[in-house]
Q: What sequence folds into this?
């Protein structure tokens, strides 16, 4: 199983905001810091706002911040809001159902594994990811001019 880029970016945004709770951050700032697309990040921020994890402030000097305390943002909840499908195998693929479905226990085992994953994720909050807040705010890459001698 692999989390989507959308979930990865969502967690990066939340960690960035959690590492700097005393100020508003912008999409451009976070995108530049992580070297990711602003347009993709806009979709991520929109979804995080709709899910109640962040709030935005419009106008000059606006930006975004966490809508909840870091200890109240459960990682399992974030992933549930950012991923759309947790089915690891589809025993009913299209019009042709799996021919061994009645005898196979793979689907049930994988469903149990997904439940175990969320049991672990539900035991952690954003606050657990903020042990080293300074390290979570990537330095902006500034290209140095070439010096000719």
A:
């Amino acid at each position: 199983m692999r989390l989507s880029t959308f979930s990865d970016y969502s967690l990066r945004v939340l960690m960035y905001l959690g590492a700097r709770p005393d100020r508003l951050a912008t999409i451009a700032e976070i995108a530049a810091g992580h070297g990711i697309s602003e347009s993709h990040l806009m979709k991520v921020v929109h979804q995080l706002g709709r899910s109640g994890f962040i709030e935005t402030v419009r106008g000059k000097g606006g930006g975004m911040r966490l809508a909840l305390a870091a200890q109240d943002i459960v990682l399992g909840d974030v992933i549930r809001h950012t991923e759309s499908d947790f089915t690891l195998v589809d025993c009913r693929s299209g019009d042709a159902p799996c021919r061994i479905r009645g005898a196979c226990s793979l689907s049930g085992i994988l469903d149990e594994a997904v439940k175990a994953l969320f049991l672990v994720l539900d035991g952690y909050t954003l606050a657990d990811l903020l042990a080293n807040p300074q390290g979570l705010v990537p330095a902006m890459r500034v290209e140095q001019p070439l010096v000719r001698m």
Q: What stands out?
A: The chain has one domain: 5-136. The domain at 5-136 is CATH 1.10.10.10 (Arc Repressor Mutant, subunit A). Residues 29 and 35 are 10 Å apart (CA to CA).
